[in-house]
Every structure is written in structure tokens, then in C-alpha cells.
Amino acid sequence: MMLLYEGKAKKVFKTEDPEVLRIEYKDEVTAGNGAKHDFMEGKGRLNNLISSDIFKYLKKNGVASHFIERTSETEQKVKAVHIIPLEVAVRNVAAGSIVERLGFKNGEEFTPPLVELYYKKDELNDPILTDDHVLRLDIATEDEIRALKEAALKVNAALIKMMNMMGLKLIDFKIEFGRDKKGNILLADEISPDTCRIRDLETGENFDKDVYRNATGSLIDTYTKFYEKMEAVK
Ligand code: 5GP
């Protein structure tokens, strides 16, 4: 079927049903908006397995998403949505860009969690936005901004619970949402160690893409271990 869109980590295809799309996860990894880029055998499979199981878990915990079903090791079927060009970030602990940009101390806890909106626009390097920017850019309405933030906090609470059972701590993550034909907002894209920062509760060891960003370990081994821990608490 027709290729609709190819991103850095996934391909999106049309299906015979206009309300359903097929996503194929690629064996590619990038960081720094494509500055670092590698082929990595088995990565697409791991991201697909992990993201599918996280969306299933979120559904059980009352969070609706675009996910329909996993159809193979590297593919899933999802509901067709128009992606809202925002990354909604939730931070439980200061790490990464917020430390570099605003001078928060690495490891500082955010209680309640901090929610941020970023403009999903590669050519602008995904800048942070205020609510007023989102309104002026016609990206979302005030009610939608509120709904996105609420949904992101609900995802956060559910993920914290799951990762706790796995002996892990959720530091932060970024998610995307889309609108379906009726204008309903649905969680979309993927949730995986590519999109979250996750640390071991005891050792502080990274279970996320930081091992690739900072070249501190094998991404495939790390994601495999994460998946095994996830399977063990299912
Ligand atoms: P930071 O703003 O510190 O770079 O990243 C915050 C969190 O967002 C981290 O967990 C990181 O993995 C995730 N993240 C960074 N870039 C992206 C992206 O382009 N897409 C998604 N979904 N998550 C991202």
C-alpha cells in the first residue's frame, strides 16, 4: 500500500481502510535532530514490541490512543489521525535540555511534574512554546491545550506505576497527539525508550536512548533488557 510518510524511525502506509494506517518501525536510530544517525539491526522490532505493549497497558489504565493492534514484529495498525504539531513533555526529574537551558540541577525532582509544549518543526529545531504561542500559531485551542496537558499527566501516572513495578524510575518523556475525523484527541506516535528517560531505581543505570546519545552502552542490549523487564511484570 501507499507510503504516506517516512520519518526518522518509522514509515507510515495507507491501508484499504481510510481510517486505518500501517506503521513500520525502521532499524534506524537518530539523535540531535538527525545529527547522529545509525542503522541498527533489531531496533525496529524492539521499539514496535515495546510501544505496542505500552499502548495496550495505557488503554487498560484509561488512556485512549491511536493503537489498534500489532500485526507483526515490526508493524502495527493504528487509527488514522492528523498529528497535532506539538511534543508534550512531562518531567518528573530534571535532566537533558532543561538542565542545559534553564540551569535546573540534574536530578532535581519536580513535584508536581512539569509539563511543557514544544513545536514539532525540524527546521526550527523543535522550540519550546508558551500556551499563547500555541494559540497564536493556531495549533490548538485553549480547551485542547488543557486536555493535552491532562492526558500527558495521566500517561505519566500510568507509566510511573508500570516502571516502578519494573524497578525503574521514569525521569521524563515526550509524547504526541492527533485528532481523529471527529476531532477527538488521541495519544499517537510511539512511547518507548526512544521517547522517555528511564533509570534503574537502585543503580541509576540508563534504560533509554541516552545510552546512544551519550555513547555509554549498547542500545539493543538496553532495549532488550527493558522489554524483558516489561514482560516480567505483565
Ligand atoms: P530533552 O528535552 O531533555 O532533550 O528530552 C526530554 C525527553 O523527551 C527525553 O525523555 C527524550 O527521550 C524525549 N525526546 C527528545 N526528543 C524527542 C523527540 O523528537 N520525540 C519524542 N517523542 N521524544 C523525544
What is shown here, in short?
The chain is an alpha+beta fold.
Oligomeric category = single chain
What characteristic shape results from the CA principal axes?
A: globular
Bound molecules: guanosine-5'-monophosphate
Rounded to an integer in angstroms, the radius of gyration calculated over CA atoms is 17 Å
Taking the alpha carbons of the first and last residues, their distance comes to 34 Å
Strand content: 25-35%
Helix percent band: 25-40%
Largest sheet: 7 strands, antiparallel
Counted by DSSP, the helix tally is 6
DSSP summary, beta strand count: 14
**What's the mean pLDDT score?**
97
Contiguous low-pLDDT stretches (5 residues minimum) are: none
**Structural class based on helices, strands and sheet pairing:** alpha+beta
SSE topology string: EEEEEHEEEEHEEHHEEEHH
Descriptive overview:
The chain is 31% helix and 32% strand. The mean pLDDT is 97. Strands 8, 9, 10, 11, 12, 13 and 14 form a seven-stranded antiparallel β-sheet that branches. It has a five-stranded antiparallel β-sheet with strand order 1-2-3-7-6. The chain has a two-stranded antiparallel ribbon with strand order 4-5. It has six helices and 14 strands. The chain is an alpha+beta fold. Helix 1 (43-60) packs parallel to helix 6 (219-233). The chain has helices at 43-60, 97-102, 131-136, 142-165, 210-213, 219-233; strands at residues 3-6, 10-14, 20-25, 28-31, 36-39, 67-70, 75-79, 82-83, 86-93, 109-119, 128-129, 168-179, 185-188, 196-200. The structure holds guanosine-5'-monophosphate. Guanosine-5'-monophosphate (5GP) binds next to strand 9, helix 2, strand 12 and strand 14. Guanosine-5'-monophosphate is lined by residues 87, 89, 96-98, 172-174, 195-197, 209.
